């Protein structure tokens, strides 16, 4: 019997991802270290979508023919799988959107416009991705709301000593990321939510980075809203999820109007459909939802606890290798407090130059502000280079990254 | 070994000739490339015959953006403003001796964009100035 129950068979996993077999330059295999931007897709996901288009394609709901019934069943089965994956009470609380950004915008527009008024306070953090910042800024401008921010410490953690004083402002909403896409920091979401609830606030968790990389349970967290994207968790682009507590979703007006979101329409009025359809106007991304369902199956079969522990191991090794390179500075907390993300600078070399040279070695990292400009400003940096890891990442890839960074130093005469 | 990091680019990046300011100047403009956070400011002095007498840039960013700015300053000194207006994307790429993908092209063209916005006296530097 195999006893390594807690480790992934990465070699076998890599076989599932066709793109990991390709070369990016003649004789240079791909080293994909950009999964925080988007993950690669296993054949299981690609095949599920391919099968849908080749075999079952039909518009969902209301069609009375075999294809329509099958496609509707597959689409709704995907919703069921997602509900189970995040521990939702009911699939009715799983709304399909385009991505995390759209999910957050949905809450800001629909819940925010219904419930927030002049002077109301929203608490965010300094480490938010623009997607959990700009929708609230837009709403704040329109409704004259006040935005307050939980600061980030030098170590890249939330300064939670500042949180109780902010909660004294009696915020209506506390919205924060469960895992930073730049620092990798995993925030204590459950405690933060409990404190927010004590202060009478509603909470939104940006789970774009956490849902793909850690086991998540919305009921255990007691999250009011929970948003994430399929494409960062082995699924396709164009589909994301908004989970919400039932009474909240029911209290909210529709976001977009159109087909499927209505129960009855007259020329001058309409009655909205029930959850979740109330928030899914128009023909949705059917193949993509099915692809997300397949991604959930794939990750569930492997086990999110194993994905998490594999990434812990890889990030610990990556930090060790990166920090030994002269001139490299890694941002964010120690490995134990973060997921598989390493944002770094190499002396004064611009991250775009670093990334460009790594690309010659087949290494795909990201360089820029990673949609978190305020956070970069806080650290006094225009940009960082970011290597990020997933279930298919290996120690050998970390070694290639480190070796190539030495090469960058050489080219720049260091 | 690496085409993009030819000696001239690394050299101009590390030892720019035209980094600084021009005082007094007739034209000044600055802008960012929000994609990478590159920033370029350009100052130019023009004599009574409409010829660029002195030019300098300042800012920060990747090697390509900064080297391109340095080479561009060198190119425009002695040219008339009318000639400066005629400088194109291809001139910059010839100067650098590079072919660039769409992302890095923005780095290479930032200084030309800033220069043209200044020369035309525009309120903002837009991409169509360098297309």
What's the structural blueprint in terms of helices and strands?
The complex is a heterodimer of chains A (414) and B (131).
Chain A: H1 10-15, E1 23-25, E2 28-29, E3 31-32, H2 43-56, H3 66-86, E4 94-97, H4 100-115, E5 121-125, H5 134-143, E6 146-150, H6 163-167, E7 173-177, H7 189-198, E8 202-206, H8 210-213, H9 218-221, E9 225-229, E10 240-244, H10 246-251, E11 262-265, E12 270-272, H11 286-302, H12 304-323, E13 328-331, E14 341-346, H13 351-360, E15 363-364, E16 366-368, H14 373-378, E17 384-388, H15 395-411
Parallel strand pairs in A: 3-15, 5-6, 5-7, 7-8, 8-9
Antiparallel strand pairs in A: 1-2, 4-10, 9-10, 11-12, 13-14, 14-17, 16-17
Chain B: H1 7-14, E1 27-33, E2 38-46, E3 52-60, H2 63-76, H3 81-85, H4 89-96, H5 102-119
Antiparallel strand pairs in B: 1-2, 2-3
Helix pairs in contact in B: 1-2, 2-5
Main β-sheet description of chain A: 7 strands, mixed
Number of domains of chain A: 2
Largest sheet of chain B: 3 strands, antiparallel
Q: Kindly provide the radius of gyration of chain A, computed on alpha-carbon positions and rounded to a whole number of angstroms.
A: 22 Å
Helix content of chain B: 40-55%
**CATH class category name of chain B:** Alpha Beta
For the residues shown, what is the average pLDDT of chain B? 90
Taken together, the total number of domains of chain B comes to 1
Q: Quaternary status of these chains? A: heterodimer
Shape of chain A: globular
Poorly predicted spans of chain A: none
Distance between the termini of chain A: 51 Å
Count of runs of 4 or more consecutive helical residues of chain A: 15
CATH architecture descriptor text of chain B: Alpha-Beta Complex
Q: How would you describe the shape of chain B? A: globular
CATH class of the largest domain in chain A: Alpha Beta
């Amino acid at each position: 019997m195999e006893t390594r129950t807690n480790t992934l068979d990465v070699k076998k996993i890599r076989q599932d991802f066709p793109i990991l077999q390709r070369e990016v330059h003649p004789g240079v295999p791909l080293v994909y270290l950009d999964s925080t931007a988007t993950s690669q897709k296993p054949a299981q996901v690609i095949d599920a979508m391919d099968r849908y288009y080749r075999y079952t394609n039909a518009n969902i709901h209301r069609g009375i023919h075999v294809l329509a019934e099958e496609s509707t069943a597959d689409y709704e089965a995907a919703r069921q799988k997602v509900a189970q994956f995040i521990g939702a009470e009911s699939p009715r609380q799983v709304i399909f959107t385009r991505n995390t950004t759209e999910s957050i915008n949905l809450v800001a527009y629909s819940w925010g416009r219904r419930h927030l008024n002049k002077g109301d306070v929203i608490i965010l953090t300094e480490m938010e991705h623009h997607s959990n910042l700009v929708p609230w800024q837009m709403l704040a401008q329109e409704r004259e709301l006040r935005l307050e921010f939980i600061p980030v410490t030098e170590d890249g953690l939330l300064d939670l000593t500042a949180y109780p004083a902010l909660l004294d402002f009696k915020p209506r909403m506390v919205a924060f990321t469960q895992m930073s896409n730049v620092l990798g920091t995993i925030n204590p979401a459950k405690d933060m939510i409990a404190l927010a609830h004590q202060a009478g606030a509603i909470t939104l968790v940006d789970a774009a980075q956490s849902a793909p990389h850690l086991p998540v349970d919305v009921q255990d967290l007691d999250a009011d809203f929970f948003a994430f994207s399929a494409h960062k968790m082995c699924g396709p682009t164009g589909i994301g999820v908004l989970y919400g507590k039932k009474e909240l979703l029911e209290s909210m007006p529709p976001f977009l109007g159109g087909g499927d979101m209505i129960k009855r329409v007259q020329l001058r009025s309409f009655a909205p459909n029930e959850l979740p359809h109330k928030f899914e106007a128009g023909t949705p991304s059917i193949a993509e939802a099915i692809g997300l369902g397949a991604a959930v199956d794939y990750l569930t079969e492997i086990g999110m606890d194993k994905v998490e522990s594999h990434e812990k191991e890889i990030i610990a090794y990556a930090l060790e290798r990166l920090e030994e390179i002269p001139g490299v500075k890694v941002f964010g907390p120690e490995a134990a407090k973060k997921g598989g993300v390493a944002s770094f600078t190499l002396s004064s070399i611009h991250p775009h130059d670093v990334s460009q040279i790594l690309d010659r070695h087949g290494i795909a990292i990201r360089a820029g502000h990673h949609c978190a400009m305020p956070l970069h400003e806080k650290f006094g940096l225009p940009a960082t280079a970011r290597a990020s890891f997933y279930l298919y990442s290996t120690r050998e890839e970390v070694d290639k990254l480190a070796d190539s960074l030495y090469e960058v130093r050489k080219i720049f005469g260091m | 070994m690496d085409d993009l990091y030819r000696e001239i680019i690394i050299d101009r990046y590390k030892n720019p000739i035209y980094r600084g300011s021009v005082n007094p100047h007739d034209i000044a403009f600055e802008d960012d490339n929000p994609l990478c956070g590159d920033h370029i400011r350009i100052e130019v002095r023009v004599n009574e015959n409409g010829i660029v007498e002195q030019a300098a840039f300042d800012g920060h960013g990747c090697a390509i953006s900064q080297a391109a700015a340095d080479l561009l300053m060198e190119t425009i000194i002695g040219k008339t403003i009318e000639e400066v207006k005629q400088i194109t994307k291809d001139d910059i790429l010839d100067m650098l001796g590079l072919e660039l993908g769409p992302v890095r092209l923005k780095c290479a063209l930032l200084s030309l964009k800033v220069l043209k916005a200044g020369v035309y006296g525009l309120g903002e530097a837009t991409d169509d100035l360098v297309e």
